[in-house]
Amino acid sequence: MVKRARLIYNPTSGREEGKRRLADILQRLDAGGIETTTRATEGEGDAITSAGEAIDNGYDIIIAAGGDGTLNEVINGMAAKAHRPPLGIIPLGTTNDFARALGIPRQWEEACDLIVRQQTMPIDVGQANDKYFINIAGGGSLTELTYEVPSKLKTLMGQLAYYVKGLEKVARLAPTELHFNIEGHGQFSGEFMLFLITNSNSVGGFEKLAPDAQINDGLLDILMMKKCNLAEFLRIATLALRGEHLNDPHIIHLQSKRIEVTSPDYVQLNLDGELGGTLPAVFQVLPSHLHIFADPTGTSSYR
């Protein structure tokens, strides 16, 4: 039986690879029995609207082709709906943290074949106030990095754009007063460099940042970095590359279903690399809220 899919793609993702590959992607999906129509995003919020409309119009499958930002918008268009069709991911962005965490192949051909095979797995979705995230939420000065990198710079420079901007940002890193109320763990208050709430183990290219995080365990992982100087921050970042940071005295690592965060300061939120409002915020997990096309055996790999 032929399935109807709506493919939502970002034409500027991954040095415009989506635009170049579109005809090939559609042909491969069609050959696999998936009749696909497309919608190119033209600006902020387009993918949210397109995903919601596709569900309202009865599409059997939603496909997000782009990076983590495109995927985040598609998730936000789907998560509030009562009926949520399965979601396919074709990772074409500068960073594809969530695809990496799920083992979805980086090659577009293999990602299409995964959708054609129609095998799905349930995944948790994070909610921050009235918005949703699939991979990570965070706050603090360094978490502003991803949405400060202009899209044209990302298209031209790829991953290097983040590192260039990151070096500039680290030099003016400052702590923020934060108050946490974490279900099952109580309250924490103090000066923190940043906090991260993760739904998977792959964040910003750090594949061991939250090594215990699982995409369908019904929990969110919380990482809080206490006030430290620049040398200490860089040392902890180096440890994080190896997954050896959780025992550092500057790091608090917990798991919970619900986290409240407040601050007397103005603190912006980062949701999957996009601006997600400001504190105060309540973060909670929606267990097994979406079904994603993935290899349940884990034999597919992002490479």
Automatic annotation (TrEMBL):
Any GO CC annotation of this UniProt entry: plasma membrane
Alphabetically list the UniProt keywords. ATP-binding, Kinase, Lipid biosynthesis, Lipid metabolism, Magnesium, Metal-binding, Nucleotide-binding, Phospholipid biosynthesis, Phospholipid metabolism, Transferase
An example of a GO molecular function for this protein is:
ATP binding
Q: Name one Pfam family in it.
A: DAGK_cat
Name the domain of life: Bacteria
Q: Please give the InterPro entries that the UniProt record associates with this protein.
A: ATP-NAD_kinase_N, Diacylglycerol/lipid_kinase, Diacylglycerol_kinase_cat_dom, Lipid_Phosphate_FormReg, NAD/diacylglycerol_kinase_sf, YegS/DAGK_C
Q: Would the keyword Lipid biosynthesis be found if you checked this record's keyword annotation?
A: yes
Q: Which residues form the DAGKc domain?
A: 1-132
The cofactor required is: Mg(2+)
Biological process (GO) annotations held by this record are: phospholipid biosynthetic process
Xref: NCBIfam families: PRK13055.1, PRK13337.1, YegS/Rv2252/BmrU family lipid kinase
The record's comment on protein family reads: Belongs to the diacylglycerol/lipid kinase family.
Q: What is this protein called?
A: Diacylglycerol kinase
